[in-house]
Amino acid sequence: MNNLKQLKFWNFGGMYYFYFMIWALIFAFLPFWLNNVAELSTSVAGLVFSAMAITALILEPIYGIIQDKLGLKKYLFGFVVLCLLFIGPFVQYAFIPLLETNAIFGAIIGGAYLSLCLNGGVGVVEAYIERSSRASNYEYGHVRLFGSLAGGTAAFIGGIMFVRNPYSIFWACTVSAVLLGVLLWTLRVKNTADEPNASAEKEAEEPVTKENILQVFKNRSFWGFAIMMIGIATMFDVFDQQFPNYFASFFTDESQGELVFSRITSVQIFMEAGFMVIAPWFINKIGAKNGLILAGVVLFIRILGSAFLTEVWLLAFWKLLAAVEMPLMLVSIMKYITGVFDVRLSATVYMLGFNFSKQVGITVFSYVMGLLYSEIGFQNGYIALSVFVLTFVIAGALIMRSESYYTKKKNLSAA
Q1: Contact indicator for 74, 184 with CB cutoff of 8 Å
Q2: Can you give the residue ranges of the Major facilitator superfamily (MFS) profile domain (predicted)?
Q3: Chain centroid to CA 92: how far?
Q4: Which residues of 11-24 are buried (b: 16+ CB within 10 A; e: fewer)?
């Protein structure tokens, strides 16, 4: 039985590894590809990311409700894997012709397709594995660290691959999708009352209703959480979208800059995996709400510092702050959702409160920041972005309540 449980842990870890291998390869090297291979301006490149976000806005509410209805069934996850399988062929044979026909049209179509796999699909992947690992009595942060390891691996090998052949990045995504599909097919998680976790019992016995879902929107903490996600998750992605190009601009040879950036990203993500091991313990000590606030403060410092640092080694060191920020954010999000809301609705809350809100922000701020970078430059643009972060984090913190508030409320009701 213990051997079976260990095998299941590695299965969860493997799914995170291969999915986030794809995620890291795309988001680390897509900016370079759009700039150097597709030769798009920063504003049109920003439109690709906005299209990814808009598509996710449409998908997230639908995905969230479907996944909560499915519980531990794998059909929706399987659809995401199917989309991932065709990333290589799409980029190799369709994306450039679409961009050559009409840059704006191609950017929208390309962004929409990638969103099926990434911006929209990640909610399905995260929600399913979090629920499955919770039902199997695993700590989310310990399973999630495999995603960080994948990111480090992708950054390390991706730089070499991209310099040799920019298209090889996307074919590596297709190969990873094949392995992800095999792991998903072999995974077995029981959704019965004999699960060791009490929340799994509740999920099995009580179906999700429309009234349950509506209760989420009546909770002020949901709206505060959503605002906080715009300040942290949105701005994290918006900042990282074109930072690789900013970093590479400090090198006389841009390809050298791209390679150095991939090495730094690899170090950052392996450090992130280390922090992911201790993050659950740390968040349990300070509380999930405080963990989110702390993640927002780290992001604010990271963006503002990048506006004033003009030495490559300082920028590289500053980027490593993301190794602390990401574990704080990811673990706090899941602990806040399961600590405040009905666990049967974890996918809905995750996809609407986190992913949907994040994509709303990305839809707006990807394009806005693309224009700002063109008009006032990266450094002044980063100052503006840091102000946006601080504003949303403060607003969200004032509205959302801590999970301890709801624990006390439940205890009083039980008494």
Answers
A1: yes
A2: 1-404
A3: 25
A4: bbbbbbbbbbbbbb
CA distance 336 to 125: 18
> Which of the listed ranges 47-61, 189-203, 225-239 does the model predict with the highest average pLDDT?
225-239
CB 392 within 8 A of CB 329: no
Q: Which amino acid is at 192?
A: T
282: tokens are: 């740390």
Which has more confidence, 100 or 208? 100
Token duo for residue 391: 């504003």
**Superfamily the domain 2-414 falls into:** MFS general substrate transporter like domains (1.20.1250.20)
CA 153 vs CA 28, 80, 193, 338: distances in Å: 12, 22, 39, 30
Q: Which of 72, 81, 163 is nearest to 121 (CA)?
A: 81
Give residue-wise pLDDT tens across range 340-378. 888 778 888 888 888 888 878 887 888 888 888 888 888
The number of angstroms, rounded, from the C-alpha of 83 to the middle of its chain's C-alpha atoms is 17
3-state DSSP assignment of residue 301: helix
> In the block, which residue shows the tokens 């906005």?
50
The structural domains of the chain, with segments of one domain joined by +, span 2-414
At 250, give phi and psi (nearest 5°): -85, 0
The token duo for 112 is 């929409």
Single-letter code of the amino acid located at 396: G
Which residues, other chains included, contact 303 with Cβ-Cβ below 8 Å and sequence gap of 6+?
Answer: 235, 239, 382, 385, 386, 389
* 380-407 mean pLDDT: 90
Q: Give the list of residues 6+ apart from residue 194 with CB closer than 8 angstroms, or none.
A: none
Task: Yes or no: say if 1 and 132 are a contact pair by the CB < 8 Å rule.
Answer: no
pTM of the model: 0.74
The closest of 131, 128, 124, 115 to 61, measured between CA atoms, is 124
